[in-house]
Design a protein that fits this description.
Blueprint lengths: L1 E11 L1 H8 L7 H16 L9 E12 L4 E6 L7 H15 L2 E4 L2 H15 L30 E3 H5 L10 H7 L13 H6 L3 H26 L4 H16 L3 H12 L1
Parallel strand pairs: 1-4, 4-5
Antiparallel strand pairs: 1-2, 2-3
């Protein structure tokens, strides 16, 4: 198993909003964002900004490699990293390790956002975009095919590719005895960003990546790819890592253990 379960956090791309909607420099970033939200509400009835106008501020991941017995949880780059650095670093990791990417709604959100932001930031990702031209094994199992498992979108797969059966990660995590959102959500990221709370955003993103990975382990168990003992062993690996982690990871462990 060579798996990278990941999650992204985004804010409105105010620079892009200024260009598209011809908003003047006299407006603050907050005012531009509010104008973007208003235009989106007018068009769709919701505040949810279109994928190509979502700017990436954090990508967090859980990496598990059984061959080398590696497990890690981290957020790409630093609090000062640019969007280009974050997105390029992510795709460089895919290029180097060719992991199975695991997401919750990654096909509907995370990856399309990364596609657009990679394009806008001139990011190169040859391994990720390979459809079999360079590696024949990618012809029938690549990152872009909806029914391929090199990218496993758990929300899509578990729902049987039926969008009427989609479920929120938070609720599935809680039903499985996992911590879920722990009082935070993606809707609060913009306010936290404006307040300069980048670390809080990165910490929250890591807990979402953890929830995603742990749901993945349960799905592997359902498929028969992990025995009962194997599932418990993988849980023990995660718990051991969290015990030595930062406060937000220890809090995640405490909530998980108390469930």
């Amino acid at each position: 198993m060579n798996v990278l379960a990941f999650d992204i956090e985004t804010i409105p791309d105010v620079s892009g909003g200024r260009k598209l909607y011809e908003l003047g420099d006299e407006l603050s970033d907050s005012d531009v964002a509010e104008a973007m939200f208003a235009k989106r509400r007018e068009k769709t009835g919701t505040d949810f900004i279109a994928t190509h106008l979502q700017k990436v501020v954090a990508i967090s991941a859980v990496y598990r490699n059984l061959t080398h017995d590696k497990f890690s949880v981290w957020t790409i780059g630093t609090e000062e990293s640019t969007e280009k650095e974050i997105v390029q670093n992510f795709f460089d990791g895919v290029d180097k390790h060719t992991p199975t990417l695991v997401t919750w709604n990654g096909g509907g959100f995370d990856l399309p956002v990364l596609h657009y932001r990679g394009l806008i930031n001139s990011v190169q990702a040859p391994r990720y975009w390979d459809l079999g031209e360079d590696d024949s094994s990618f012809k029938w199992n690549n990152y872009l095919g909806r029914f391929h498992l090199r990218h496993t979108d758990l929300m899509d797969v578990i729902a049987g590719y039926n969008n009427r059966a989609y479920a929120p990660l938070d609720e599935i995590a809680i039903l499985l005895g996992l911590p879920g959102k722990m009082g935070m959500s993606g809707s609060k990221v913009w306010d936290q960003y404006k307040a300069g709370e980048i670390k809080a955003i990165r910490d929250y993103c890591e807990t979402d990546a953890l929830n995603t990975y742990l749901v993945y382990l349960h799905w592997l168990h359902t498929r028969g790819h992990l025995t009962d003992a194997g599932l418990q062993q993988e849980h023990a690996v995660v718990k051991s890592a969290l015990e030595d982690g930062e406060p937000h990871l220890k809090e995640f462990l405490d909530v998980w253990s108390a469930a």
